[in-house]
Amino acid sequence: RIYERAKKGIGIMFQRPPTISGLKTRDIVDICRGEKDIDIDALAGELNMAQFLERDINDGFSGGEIKRSELLQLLAQNPNLSLIDEPESGVDLENISVIGNAINKLLQKELHRHRKNSGLIITHTGNILDYVAADVGHLLIGGCLKCTSNPLDMLKEIKKSGYEKCMECMECKI
Question: CA 67 → CA 3, 4, 45, distances in Å?
């Protein structure tokens, strides 16, 4: 099933992916790359992951190293749709900008009109919004979509007044 999703152009960054003994990070990135002409070493360098390429996937990695490893795999795959679960979880302040820059690259934020990739980023803290240029924010409570609006405005309102007040605002389109 994972292979079928990948063939359809869907990539996933898990909140806590498994450690896989015996599978080197370089090998999984090579699998994700497929037939694409991507320089794995250069890509790993952009994410400060070069020293991890010959290590087993996620074995002994810190939270931030795991997130960067997941993004390295996604960047190599270059999916049309990326599902990204809590990219800032377990990431120290020094590396959250690296994560944000990688997500912006993955989602082709610099292309504007010619963008082919999109993503759904799940966050509980909203901290990643300081580093990722999100287009639209959605608020889910109890499994129901409660609000759709500008993500930075929503986060500001939630921090100021809580989730309930955010759902009452005039900007909500739901």
Answer: 21, 23, 15
